[in-house]
Design a protein that fits this description.
alpha+beta, 6-stranded antiparallel beta sheet, two-stranded antiparallel ribbon, 19% strand, binds adenosine-5'-triphosphate, binds magnesium ion
């Protein structure tokens, strides 16, 4: 019989490996709802964009930004959200599995806790869950390229989905709609939407540009200039639906990626 008391804890711990994220790089934690195609069906999300479902995602992201100090910016579309942690963050000594798991579990808890605030008349039929991953980006330029990629995806998906659901509403089956759109270019989709009487540029900004949730560091109040200059930044988290591909956004918010 094995005597468990003789096994050294240090020996057992040496099997763990701590994957540390590269120092001095922007950390992006991207979470994504698992099987939300089904989840959105079962919970009767409005297609192609359920505004309340997006508001719920934004509200959970806002809670993440408030809870984890090192989150400097976040960007969400559909069932996904990307959280950017500051370059020199020492959160969990930059251990990937801890960071990913706390962000994912906190977000998921929030999603279920806040469900009834956003869907008061709709029962949460089964527990939603999210996956998460960590990626490091070595410069703010590449980080901005990453965010731009997500925003381009938002636009492409939204344009496709808006066409798809218009075709379905007009009487096509889902597979007919899919075949109809196969190989169409952006211009073709724009024309199709015009035929349906939809001006794409007039759709809500949140649907077209996604949501950016971040701490507005604009109002830094110097409490007392004489006494060792105590600065008290007002922690106001805001949600905006803006173009983050254009440099003008980053010029207007220089504190985010400083
Ligand atoms: P996976 O588990 O691989 O992520 P998934 O079913 O979640 O699979 P995604 O590619 O993540 O697939 O896409 C999410 C899907 O969830 C969308 O295709 C859409 O059908 C649905 N969805 C998410 N958010 C909304 C929303 N606000 N309104 C309507 N539908 C939504
Ligand atoms: P960390 O975030 O580092 O894990 P922690 O506060 O969660 O910090 P742990 O070492 O994980 O600390 O210990 C969990 C603590 O939670 C215990 O010390 C105990 O105080 C409390 N706790 C957990 N489960 C129970 C329980 N079933 N009954 C009473 N207290 C509990
Ligand atoms: Mg996924
Ligand atoms: Mg998903
Ligand atoms: Mg997704
Ligand atoms: Mg614990």
């Amino acid at each position: 019989k094995k005597d468990i008391g003789k096994v050294e804890p240090d020996f057992l711990k040496c099997f763990q490996f701590a994957k540390k994220l590269l120092p001095s790089t922007w950390i992006v934690i991207r979470i994504d709802g698992c099987h939300f195609h089904r989840f959105s069906d079962v919970h009767e999300f409005v297609k192609p964009n359920d505004e309340q479902a997006l508001n719920l995602m934004n509200s959970c992201a806002l809670a993440v930004v408030k809870e984890f100090q090192d989150t400097v910016f976040s960007y969400g579309i559909s069932d996904e959200y990307s959280f950017v942690l500051s370059k020199n963050s020492q959160f969990y000594q930059r251990r990937a599995s801890e960071i990913v798991s706390v962000v994912v579990s906190f977000f998921t808890s929030m999603y279920t806790m806040k469900w009834t605030d956003f869907f008061p008349q709709r029962e949460l039929k089964y527990p939603p869950y999210f996956d998460g991953r960590a990626v490091c980006y070595p410069s703010s330029e590449i980080l901005r390229d990453y965010l731009a990629w997500r925003q381009v995806d938002c636009h492409i998906n939204n344009q496709y989905n808006t066409c798809f659901w218009q075709l379905v509403k007009s009487g096509k089956s889902k597979s007919e709609a899919q075949n109809f759109l196969k190989g169409t270019q952006a211009g073709d989709k724009d024309k199709l939407l015009k035929q349906f009487g939809i001006d794409y540029n007039k759709l809500p900004l949140m649907f077209r540009q996604g949501s950016s949730t971040f701490l507005d560091k604009g109002d830094i109040i110097t409490v007392n200039k004489n006494e060792s200059s105590v600065e008290n930044s007002q922690k106001k988290v805001i949600v905006e639906h803006c173009n983050i591909i254009e440099p003008s956004f980053w010029c207007a918010h220089p504190a985010i990626l400083n």
